[in-house]
Amino acid sequence: MEIIDKSESSGMIHSPFTEDQIKNLNKYQDSGQFHPFTCPNDGDEKHVAFEFEKEHAGEDYEEYLKGEIEKGIPFPEMSFNQTSLVATKDGWMCPVCDYKQYWAHEFMADKKHNEEMDKCLNAPIHTFINPGFNLSTDYKLLWDLIQKGQRIPAWLVYTDEYKEPIWDIVEVKKSIWTDCKYSIGVRGIGYENKQTFEGFEMVCKKYSLHFVLPKI
Fold this sequence. Notes:
The chain has 216 residues and is α+β, with helices and mostly antiparallel strands. The chain has helices spanning 19-30, 45-55, 61-70, 111-121, 139-147, 197-206; strands spanning 2-3, 12-14, 86-88, 91-93, 100-101, 103-105, 135-136, 152-159, 166-173, 183-186, 189-190, 210-212. 29% of the residues lie in helices and 20% in strands. It starts with a strand and ends with a strand.
């Protein structure tokens, strides 16, 4: 399946992509800052198997689903229904099927734009001290806790544009009603990003998240 778009729309670029464009497009695609370009065929058996193998190499798929369902997580297969495209000289390619896309937004290939994103991700880490709670920034532990069904309170930097950062209290959990692997926020405000541990860790670092260690 191919999508061919040779329009001369403003703000668009088309293949063949240059080496610099390929580098910046894939960097943007993997950054987790925005929803990536994905294959319209993802979610079928081949794509799901590909995504599962990336995260759970060597594990049995059916046994994994059974274990997740026993934890009370409905439709765990939905965690593997998104396959991101990869930028190449000839355009965007799906790593599983023959889907191709020949265009991209110009800003996605802009080195300066990607550098600005890096600055945001490498912003200073603020320290939150509250003597009433045992707080942690062990984001791998937090990830493991919420994947097991824990709902964890935490503080993060809502904004650091003032002399002292303004902290917001949020709940960190795994949503059971969608294909999201995590949720960070309060009613009406969310801080989610790319639905992988890397995306989760990036959000936690970006907002200097400090979570309450549960007594388990």
